[in-house]
Design brief:
mainly alpha, Pectate Lyase C-like, 2 domains, 7 helices, 30% helix, 0% strand
């Protein structure tokens, strides 16, 4: 982990080779469309191998574990394993296992905040807001670097509640930069909604439930997608090239194709179809951005 107040991109990207399978042990999950079985918190998943690797990693979707494919620790796993606990595996130190799992549950949301704050600073906020974001970034990094005792007593939900308004302001300023901001659908329940004729450019979609929504061919330029649930959303032909706070795990949870336009920092998920998309005709009420061939996307994560 970087010693500076500003984490490097690698610090906020999962490196499973330096972790002890914490995401496969610490959290609980229930049998559902996302997980094929029940697993209590603190109990290793039956698919976790002794070398901390997943025994069915290449078949997670086929074996009923799509939830695992979209989970992102934002680099918290390797920090807790290698820095907070000095590289000592919980298997070799059973007495520290519970402390390690509890610590991971706090560091993971702190690392998520670090990622969002870093993204917010990249949006060129005005000087006063930049100073506030930088201060929040430094404070979040300080907290994430604490010892297990201080981390386990931290009210991470309350802290997140103090930082989120800053992130919302950064998103609002970025949405305004291209002109008038779009519609405000913050937290809206849009499960399965057909949004192909809705103008979502510059929209506020923070925390929106877009599960299974039809977004084919939609221009999401400058739309704030912070925490938007895109599980099963149809992004074929959509333009996400300038979407705000879009994370790789959101793409991994959605459906898309080679015509989906991505930011350069994100990767086209392997499970997206490579087949050609039937051209999507845009309605007059929802003008689009540029179209054309697929953009070559860079690599990102987790």
């Amino acid at each position: 982990m970087s010693e500076s107040a500003t984490p490097s991109p690698g610090d906020l990207r999962a490196d499973c080779s330096r972790c002890f399978g914490l995401c496969c042990v610490a959290p609980a999950f229930s049998a559902s469309a996302d997980f094929a079985l029940d697993k209590p918190a603190g109990q290793p998943c039956p698919n976790l191998r002794p070398d901390s690797r997943c025994g069915i990693h290449g078949e997670l979707r086929e074996r009923g574990f799509p939830g695992c494919t979209v989970f992102d620790c934002f680099g918290a796993g390797q920090r807790v394993a290698q820095v907070t606990f000095g590289g000592r595996d919980w298997r070799d130190a059973p007495a520290t296992a519970r402390r390690m799992f509890d610590t991971f549950a706090v560091v993971r949301p702190l690392h998520e905040l670090l990622w969002y704050l870093t993204e917010a600073l990249s949006l060129r906020p005005p000087p006063e807001l930049r100073a506030e974001l930088s201060a929040a970034l430094a404070e979040t990094e300080r907290l994430a670097g604490g010892d297990p005792e201080s981390l386990r007593t931290l009210d991470v939900d309350a802290y997140r509640g103090r930082v989120n308004p800053l992130l919302a302001r950064a998103g609002d300023r970025a949405r305004e930069r291209g002109g008038r901001p779009g519609v405000d659908r913050r937290g809206a329940a849009l499960l399965g909604a057909d949004l192909r004729r809705v103008d979502l450019r510059g929209a506020n979609l923070r925390g929106a439930l877009l599960i299974g929504a039809d977004l084919r061919g939609v221009d999401l330029g400058r739309a704030d997608l912070t925490g938007a649930d895109l599980r099963g959303a149809d992004l074929r032909g959509a333009d996400l090239s300038t979407a705000l706070f879009l994370h790789q795990s959101q793409l991994d949870a959605a459906r898309g194709d080679r015509h989906t336009v991505l930011p350069r920092t994100l990767t086209r998920p392997a499970h997206w179809t490579a087949l050609a998309l039937t051209p999507v005709r845009r309605s007059p009420g929802a003008p689009g951005g540029r179209r054309g061939g697929p953009r070559r996307s860079g690599s990102r994560s987790t």
